[in-house]
Amino acid sequence: MAEVLDFRVPTGRAQTLLVWGLEPQPGLEHSLFSTFSKFGPLYSVRAHRNAAVAGPGYYAVIKFYSAGDASRAQCACNGQRLFQRSPLKVCVCTKQKGFQQQVLALNSNKCQELANHYLGFNGWSSRIITLQNVSGFDGETEELGEMLQKRSVKYLCAVEVTLPNHGVRTRGVALGEADLENDEDPLELLEASRRVQKLAVGKALSSAFQKILLIVLENGKVAVEYNSTQEELTDSLTEEELKGLLQV
To answer: Where does the RRM domain lie (predicted)?
Structure first.
């Protein structure tokens, strides 16, 4: 049976493992990551000290992107000693409490990690179509009886992601913004501009990846589909039209 993955934060119970019986040791989370990442890419690894009533030791919550990877890891690791003297207990989470209901997009770094794993480092590419400074005054706000003006730095970015082996091409458009405490300071303006440009590019890249679905087959091969539910009006524009629209 095929499994469909998207570029969003994993929230399913089947994607999450609970590991307990962990012994205190330096670099515990690193050991967990090294062990469980062999079964597939991980979204997060978090180790926590046991509650006082449970006795000394630690437990961990490990989130996979793929429920299939989580299941294989559970079967292989449950009851094994792995990196410690006593065997670990590993189970798939069954409690819904604590899982976020809102589905959030992965940040650009996580999107790239997932794409590299399933598509290969040469299986996808991205380019910036346009990155434009759209800064200006945000207007006046009244505070403590005085009229104040606060300037912000804004950059609007359009990015294109291409998957040549699958014939898929997507776009993402995003705005990066930061307030300036002192708009007379050229160094602050320069640093803020660099930071906001990076933010805008990252958000646009993440937005482009939201339109991609990965179909992981039982034999390990990966197919790709365009996620039309995330389609935007800007996707139908030519590059020149898109640049003109952003300039406006």
So the answer is: 15-95
